[in-house]
Design brief:
- This protein is an alpha/beta fold.
- The chain folds into two domains: about 5-275, TIM Barrel (Alpha-Beta Barrel); about 280-350, Antifreeze-like/N-acetylneuraminic acid synthase C-terminal domain (Type Iii Antifreeze Protein Isoform Hplc 12), CATH 3.90.1210.10.
- The protein is about 35% helix and about 15% strand.
- The protein has twelve helices and twelve strands.
- The strands form three sheets. It has an eight-stranded parallel sheet. Strands 1-2 form a two-stranded antiparallel ribbon.
- Strand 6, helix 7 (about 140-145) and strand 7 form a beta-alpha-beta unit.
- Helix 1 (about 35-45) packs parallel to helix 5.
- The longest helix has 18 residues, at about 255-275.
- The protein is elongated.
- The two termini are about 50 Å apart.
Length: about 350
Amino acid sequence: MPLEFEIAPGRMIGGNHSCFFIAEIGQNHQGDIEIAKKMIKVAKDCGADCAKFQKSELQFKFNKAALARPYTSPHSWGPTYGEHKEHLEFSHEQYRELKAYAESVGILMGASGMDEKAVDFLDELGLPFFKVGSGDTNNLPYLKHTAKKGRPMIISSGMQTMETMREVYKTVKPINDKFCFLQCTSAYPLEPEDVHLNIMKEYEKEFPDIPVGYSGHESGMTITLAAVAMGAKIVERHITLDKTWKGNDHKASLEPDELKELITQIRVVERAMGSRVKEMRPCELPTFNKLGKSVVAACDISAGTPLTLDMLTVKVAEPKGYPPENIFDLVGKKLKKSVENDESVTKDNIEA
C-alpha cells in the first residue's frame, strides 16, 4: 500500500505531500464557545490545516468515583473533577455549531473522541478523521470500535511502548489501513531531552506502510521544525489565546503569533527539503561560471606529449577547461594542440 492516504476530501497526507498541521484547541477554550470560535479563526488565519477539539461523554470516559474526586487544583473549574470536566465539555449542539463555523471560515475541524460514545457522535457529526489521544492508544477495544467507522485515524503514542505500538498496528491494520502514528511524550510542558524524535525513525522502520508524524507539548518552535525536517507528515501543537489562562495545557501551547511563525517556518523547511538527487542546480550556475575551477597547464605542453600530473594544475580559468574532478583521467593522454603555461586544458583539445 502507498505511504499516503486522503485525510479529508482533496487533502492527502504522507508521501510527498506537505505536512498536515493540526492546531490543537483541546479544552483551551475555557468552556466558552465564543472563545472556541475565535481560536478556530486564529488557526485558519495562521495557516493550520485543521482546528481540533477533545470530545468526551463523561459517564463513559470516567467511573463515578473519578468524577466525584475532589479537585482543588488552581486550574479547577469546579469542586469535583466531574464538575470541572463538565464546565469544559461542549454539548452535541455546540459541536454542530462549531463545525458549521469552521466550514464557514474554510478550515477542517477535528476532534479526539475520548471514549466510544464520543466516537459515535463524532462519526455522526461527519468529522473527516478520528484523532486517538495517547490515553486511548492502548485501549484495543476502543481502537477496534473506531477503526470500524472507516474514517482515517491519527494515533498518538504518548505513554506507550514499542511493543504496544506493534499491537496497535496489528489491531487497526486489518480493519482500516488509513492511519498513522505520531511520536508523542505526554508531559506538559515537555523538556527537550524527553522528546525523542528518533522514535519517528524507528516507526518508519517498523511500520513502513503508514505515515509518521509528531505531536508536541514543548515550548517554542525548534523541536517541531526538527520533526518536520526528519520527515513528520503530520504535526499537532496545542494553541491558546493566552498562556497565562487557567488550565494545564496553556503553558505548553502556542499563542497566535507563535503559531503563525511556526507554520510559516514549516513551509520554509518543506521547500528546503527538496530532491534526493545531488546535482548542480540552475541557481548555482552564476557562481560556477564565476568561480568554478578547471584544469590548466602548469607548464608549456606540446601537442602529442603524454600528459603527467606535474604538467597540470587547477585554477579558476578563462575559458572553462577540463573538470578538475576528472584530472586523473588525463594522465597518459595527449593534446591535439599545444598550450602555453597557465592556459586552460579544454575537453575538445584532448585526443580520443
